[in-house]
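Protein in question filed below.

…
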Amino acid sequence: MTSEPSSPPSTRPSRAGTPLHFKDVLLDALKRYKHEDESEAHQIYRQSAGHKARTLSFPRLSTLMKKLFRNPTPWFNRCHILFRPAQANGFNYASSHEWSNLGQGAPEVGPIPDAPDRPVKVEYDYDALEYAPTTGVKKLREAVAHLYNATYRQGKASQYTYENVCIVPGGRAGLSRVAAVIGDVYCSYQVPDYTAYDQMLSAFKRLVPVPTALEPENHYNLDIGQVKKDIRTQGLAVIIASNPRNPTGQVIRGNDLKELVDISRESATTVILDEFYSWYIYYENEKNIGKSISSAEYVDDVNKDSVVIVDGLTKNWRLPGWRICWVIGPKNLITALSQSGSFLDGGANHPLQLAAIPLLDPEHVHKEKVALQKHFKMKRDHVLKRLKAIGLEVKIPPVATFYIWLNLENLPDPINNGLTFFEELLKEKTIVIPGIFFDINPAHRRNLFSSPCHHFVRLSFGPPLEDLDQGIDAIARVLRKAKKEGMRSFGHSYKKSIEGPASLATHV
């Protein structure tokens, strides 16, 4: 019996019948890599300051892969990893109109329909040239307490006062102050969640991180029953979470939020909730427009319930440049935060604290909420519709925040992972955030390809509508290129630095 003749070892037929040479076969194999060692985009990410694996070794890494920053700090901001390659590909803030920044974690700051006028002038007297107290200006603290009482605590015996409020220069500063005064404890966090938690848990070693993976099958909802079990069996003393949730766009509300707050009372567990997106709630019923979400609604005693709220002007008031935020909690916590702030950040801007006071008037706030929710819901619906039209239907659309957690899993290799997708979009003058950035993984032990966030990117619909369309047009071009030309041109040859040719430069 004679066997069928085999194809020469140097070639094999392709699906279309065209012979593929050995080099093509090798390229195809590389596009199906399953480990970060074999992906240029993942090597670049891993080699950046703060992201080197602590137990893995990379013998195959090129000697050209060097640190981006020579003297990193523990609070290294992952945004630097994004904007360095963006700058290498031509992005700069002076000409940012040529780019679409779908990665930005801030809302558009200009006028929107039916909203109050934007605050563009600040007037103050000589006293405002002095340092402000590290807990903040008393009148602003009173205004914050009054707003929360009027919005969430009407009819409740226990009310917030200025002694429950600490003004801080940004959300990260607030989180760092809180972390600095917490003792040696197990701290529960979720994956995916806000990237600053990774940095906080890495910097403050007294917080021992205990992760919980949120499942897409459960719409990334927090399982309150499992949380209670983990408190009993693992001794969790702190729970930290964003709510509404960055990056998934979901929200803990109603009875689930009440039960989470009750945990602080029942088990002496401190619940820290980052509520920066508390106004970005998208209601289908128009009668609910203008309502917002906060755990303050379910606190029983403001000085006994161990519930800590972090919020500010950054997102809800659309004033990220002001850096005026606050921490709300029991009086004894606020006293401790004053002490930690004296050596961590020194306090918030004095004149802008004074300028913020009228912006917290409940009537003014209601007008802002209504305008914001209508405008951003319109943008959300527009982006979802356009994504669906180019074949990227979002299975779990956001009900809050201004982010879309986009699953790329059904795209062909290698653009079905967030890092490669991000790099390819840079060539189209568009920035997105790779999902891996939201894998809170302080030990950096996990193979990046094993991350539950690996196949995702976060798209922001915070920018103006024309910027959003520009970015989606770029995504459509990448998908058309993949369909027309195949995958050979994807996943390599990234421009990595502002200086020198791409093949010699380094970045993350």
Observations:
- The chain has two domains: 33-107+402-485, 126-364.
